[in-house]
Specification:
Order of helices and strands: HHHHEEEE
CATH architecture: Roll
Helix content: 25-40%
Oligomer: single chain
Strand content: 25-35%
Structural class: alpha+beta
Shape: globular
Largest sheet: 4 strands, antiparallel
Strand order of the largest sheet: 1-2-3-4
């Protein structure tokens, strides 16, 4: 796949936004940047990146298989960032609330999530979902 603008919806050039992060040429500096890069990785089917950016304590033995299964079931269409809390380059923790539109075999849908992130050895990692 080739993109001019990043599929995360930032409006920024793909390479300057998530492309370089997913390819490992630079780190996500904020929790939101990591969340956007993970969304993009789902579109690009970059399972290894998604596993590597999951918090080590949350990496189950079947994580890669679960990700692959979800990738086969869903085509991601659009990302909306609703809110962020913390997650700057100076923080150790952050939350990003987002809505991702998709099409599945059962039809269109929206995935609403409040993602939690934590820095591990100076790098942002996805911890899990926390919704109130």
């Amino acid at each position: 796949m080739k993109f001019d603008k990043c599929p995360c919806g930032s409006g920024i050039d793909f390479e300057a936004c998530c492309g370089g992060i997913v390819a490992g040429r630079r780190e996500a500096l904020t929790a939101e940047a990591l969340m956007r890069s993970r969304y993009t990785a789902y579109i690009l089917k970059k399972v290894d990146y998604l596993v590597e950016t999951t918090h080590p304590d949350e990496r189950s033995d079947d994580l890669a298989g679960s990700i692959r299964k979800w990738m086969r079931q869903v085509e991601w269409l659009k990302l909306h960032v609703v809110a962020t809390e913390g997650g700057s380059d100076l923080d150790e923790f952050g939350q990003v609330e987002f809505i991702a539109e998709y099409i599945a075999n059962s039809g269109p849908g929206r995935h609403h999530e409040c993602s939690v992130f934590e820095k591990v050895d100076g790098k942002w990692c996805y911890v899990g979902e926390e919704c109130e």
